[in-house]
Amino acid sequence: MNRIEEWQKIFRKIDDEILIPYKFNRLIAERYFDIIKPTIKDGGDPTFHNWCNDNYARSLLLTIRMLCDENKESCSIRYVLGQIAEHANEIKKNDYISRHESRWQDTVRNIWNNEIGSDQENLPRAIPLKHIEELRSLSASIVGITHNHIAHKSRNETATFTIEFDEAYRVIRRLISICHFYADLVGEIVPNDDLNVSFCYNWESIFYQPWLKHSRPVPSRVRKTRVT
Asked: 180 and 81 in contact (C-beta within 8 Å)?
């Protein structure tokens, strides 16, 4: 397997195992929030909602951390960009254009000229290095929160943190755009879209009927005492 094929494989894995699950999770979460919001506003017990909200927030943090993981054993955008930066001359303008059907070749030639440079026959190393720095800048605070509060927990930790979903979405959207750009350069497809998924069945049907058939008292927690 040559390097181009190896990079194609990594991009497929990133899309299949990180990006697509993220998109489905977001689709479900946002619809769930729409469904539950009136109940919470009317004074409904928020316990279950808070649990869903907190777990979804953690999944967003972990998605960003996975995409930006610098570990050499990881399957991440950061890793593959590092590999591309080391071997940037393997990505060639002529190869990039010739991978596309003739009707698209003018379009992709313009993409190369605009994004990389009309006078460049190979990808300059400076471009992936610039994107690596952008990844670090974009994800620094979120990866730090994930490391310090989610993946690890200090014995002396007292600080709290807040996650803004819109900020996490903005970061992931840009990471997807970078992933799409380099996947395209090596001949792999990663859609430049953060919501290009749909269900082939109605998953919302779970909300059409009560989850519990009969109300029943919640048993109190009893402490057992050993008598001698």
From this structure: no
